[in-house]
Amino acid sequence: MNNFKGKTIAVIGSGLIGRSWTMVFISAGYRVEIYDVQTGQATRAIEEISKQLKELQEGGMLRGSLSAQEQMSLISSQEDLKQTLEGAFFVQECVFEDLAAKQDIFHNLESHVGEDVILSSSTSCLLPTEVFLQVTHKKRCIVSHPVNPPYYVKLVELVPHPETDAAVMERTYSLMKEVGQSPVRLRREIDGFALNRIQYAVIAEAWRLVKDGVLSVADVDLVMSEGLGMRYAFIGPMETVHLNAEGLEQYMQRYGEGMKRVLSSFGPVPDFSGEAVKKINQEMCEQIPSDPQHLAARRERRDRFILGLAKLKKDQESK
Ligand code: NAD
Q1: Among 148, 104, 100, residue whose Cα is nearest residue 122
Q2: Which end of the chain lies in a sparser environment, N or C, as judged by fewer CB atoms within 10 Å?
Q3: DSSP code of 4?
């Protein structure tokens, strides 16, 4: 177990994800120093966090044992990168998803911190070998990819660079557990990491079923929200298989051939362009028009549902 409580984490970039990481870290008692290249942005981020923490406290959804005010006292921001990094044992980078910007910032970060400081990136889809290309001591580099919104959706994908030290993976894993996230350790880097590889497989088959006229857009979404999703909020595909027979081995004896037959009937990777996009988009927009107001209302509904589910999971898991 790490013993870093009261120690400082530097968060670089204070947009949506930088703010979320900050809230997660302070909820567990870490101090956070925020730096953003845009003047005034870090101050605005702190104001936004303060507002959110108050709302969470009022709604009984504040994480950790500290009050909103106590958590707020753990955050500060600096206009200077070097000052931000002073005393930090862990740096969580949250700048735009732009390879050149990330390479540049990590090169810069390395020049201000000691070799034992962990350099962690929030990148959604850039590989560690690309992101950390310009870092000399790559053994302290790791990707910690959160899922939006990390305050409720706790998965963090930890992806090593080929040179990442095993101890760095373990220290990051313990830190993430300690702050209440659910980290998973990829043993090597792979395009799309795990979450997007699985998500894209689902999107691709949903797309083919709609494009080939088997299901409507509304019905394919119901297959997930009223079918598979009911289980998947609590147990994954491996446990599903294990429980749906007398164990995984028996499931494969019974259903393995059928699965292979169905899987071999899947079409090629869709190209997600041309007429198909227009047609599927039109059908989607008949249910949810794509103007900002309708989208905002559905996002608000989605976030309310996720919050409710997070509460339910917390209750179920504490039983
Ligand atoms: P964002 O656009 O909301 O915020 C980026 C922030 O970084 C801005 O405030 C910007 O001023 C700042 N910035 C840019 N260059 C900088 C630099 N050199 N130094 C310091 N600050 C700098 O972006 P976001 O949605 O918070 O995404 C941040 C990272 O998190 C990206 O890599 C993204 O792929 C990843 N991520 C995003 C999501 C999501 O759903 N938004 C989910 C998981 C991971």
Answers
A1: 148
A2: C
A3: -
Which ligand 1 atom is the nearest neighbour of the CA of 124?
Answer: 34
Q: Residue 143 and residue 281: Cα distance in Å, rounded?
A: 34
Q: Give yes or no for residue 64 CB within 6 A of ligand 1.
A: no
Instruction: Tell me if 150 CB under 6 Å of ligand 1.
Output: no
From 14, 17, 77, give the residue whose CB has the most ligand 1 atoms within 8 Å, as the site to mutate. Answer: 17
- Per-chain mean pLDDT for the chain: 95
CB-CB contact of 248 with 237 (8 Å):
no
**Residue whose CA is at the smallest distance from ligand 1 atom 4:** 15
Which residue shows structure tokens 């880097």? Answer: 189
Q: Which residue type sits at 295?
A: L
pLDDT digits (tens, 9 = 90+) for 36-75: 999 999 999 999 999 999 999 998 889 999 999 999 999 9
Pocket of ligand 1, candidates 14, 16, 81: which has the most ligand atoms within 8 Å of its Cβ, to mutate? Answer: 16
State pLDDT tens for residues 147-173.
998 999 999 999 999 999 999 999 999
Q: Compute, in degrees rounded to 10, the torsion defined by CA atoms 193, 196, 197, 202.
A: 170
